[in-house]
Amino acid sequence: MASAADAELILKLYELRQEETLRKARRFLVFDFNPKTVEDLRVVSRDTKSENNPYWRQAISFWEMAASLVLRGALDADLFLDSSVEGILLYAKFHHFHAETEKQSGNPFMGRTAELIAKYPAATARYEAFLKTFGNRK
Asked: Which of 92, 93, 96, 118 is most exposed by smallest CB count within 10 Å?
């Protein structure tokens, strides 16, 4: 059951999401960045000289941090999943590049978010709904 401390943390995460650069980063990844190939993805995700690379790193790391708070017990999962599913959306949007990029880099793509999806049925349901939105890319 969620506590007052959980509610405060949710509100803090919401406040952080309103920060101007993070807002731009989130908008870019959710609406503007639609790679067709892994090479398209890498232009943003790996090229540190790309003007959009900081957006990639900031938004992905924000949602990974938030998922980690849930997985480590610092934040109630149900409360988090009621209002903070953009990380799951990003995972669903880019997950089909995961196997190839992980194999080459040795780093799991959004590993905390993947763990959150696997652990909580509400997260799994959101993930599956987003997959349908993106054409069930697996």
From this structure: 118
